[in-house]
Amino acid sequence: MLKNKVAVITGSTSGIGEGCARALAKEGCHLVINGFGDASEIEALRASFEADYGITCLYSPADMTKPDEIAEMFEMTVRELGGVDILINNAGIQYVSPIAEFPTEKWDAIIAINLSSAFHTMHHAIPIMTKRGWGRIINTASAHALVASPNKSAYVAAKHGIAGLTKTAALEVARDNITVNAICPGYVWTPLVEKQIPDTARTRGMTEEEVINDVMLASAATKKFTSIEQVAALALFLCGEAAENITGSLQVIDGGWTAQ
Ligand code: NAD
């Protein structure tokens, strides 16, 4: 069912986005991958998607803080691949600090990348999907779309915002065969999580091991990290026929964190 569909996945040079790209490529979707990183590593990833799955995979270097570059990403997608069927808004960054010391530029960057970029991508994707009569939009939110943690003001605000944006977009396109949902993972073992361990250790005066056990997995009833593959499998399900009537939902995959 997903063979020859076109998927645009922001922040897919690493972590969850790369996992979602791989899961869709396995189903025969053509891809536009996006994100930062070493140019030769990104090219190797792009080429491996084409070689391993027999699909077309393009790379867009669009910076999600720049609406013009987001527009160019969609111009390229339409020009080279004919349209877009699946959009996964996944690019995201984190910064950990109390509000009193939180740098303004970090606040602005997190709101731009983790929240506003999803508005800009949907602004371009929805008219294309409406014309094609089918679409799937998935926003990678977080358990932090539902609950807060100290020292993550911008991230929690952006993720709560993406929950509202998901619901609003879902209602606007509900009759157009386009679904819009958010996935809300607890901690997934990715480079983003790895990077925040030293920061959290510093701001809370803990060892890195204490951060993993007493902060990150403290709230997970299962005491397990979610895997990238588990998030990707949920995204794939949301793209499938069985999920046709699931829209405007927040799909929690957090080891029981927000059940408490
Ligand atoms: P990651 O750091 O592995 O990947 C982030 C991706 O976003 C990378 O490809 C990076 O290059 C890209 N990116 C960053 N800034 C960008 C920009 N300005 N423009 C374009 N791309 C940019 O992180 P991840 O853990 O895979 O996170 C992916 C998403 O999942 C994020 O939205 C994050 O908030 C969310 N999330 C992660 C976890 C977790 O525990 N890892 C939990 C809940 C939600």
Automatic annotation (TrEMBL):
<keyword id="KW-0560">Oxidoreductase</keyword>
<dbReference type="GO" id="GO:0003858">
    <property type="term" value="F:3-hydroxybutyrate dehydrogenase activity"/>
</dbReference>
<comment type="similarity">
    <text>Belongs to the short-chain dehydrogenases/reductases (SDR) family.</text>
</comment>
<protein>
    <submittedName>
        <fullName>3-hydroxybutyrate dehydrogenase</fullName>
        <ecNumber>1.1.1.30</ecNumber>
    </submittedName>
</protein>
<dbReference type="GO" id="GO:0032787">
    <property type="term" value="P:monocarboxylic acid metabolic process"/>
</dbReference>
<dbReference type="InterPro" id="IPR011294">
    <property type="entry name" value="3-OHbutyrate_DH"/>
</dbReference>
<dbReference type="Pfam" id="PF13561">
    <property type="entry name" value="adh_short_C2"/>
</dbReference>
<dbReference type="InterPro" id="IPR050259">
    <property type="entry name" value="SDR"/>
</dbReference>
<dbReference type="InterPro" id="IPR036291">
    <property type="entry name" value="NAD(P)-bd_dom_sf"/>
</dbReference>
<dbReference type="InterPro" id="IPR002347">
    <property type="entry name" value="SDR_fam"/>
</dbReference>
<dbReference type="InterPro" id="IPR020904">
    <property type="entry name" value="Sc_DH/Rdtase_CS"/>
</dbReference>
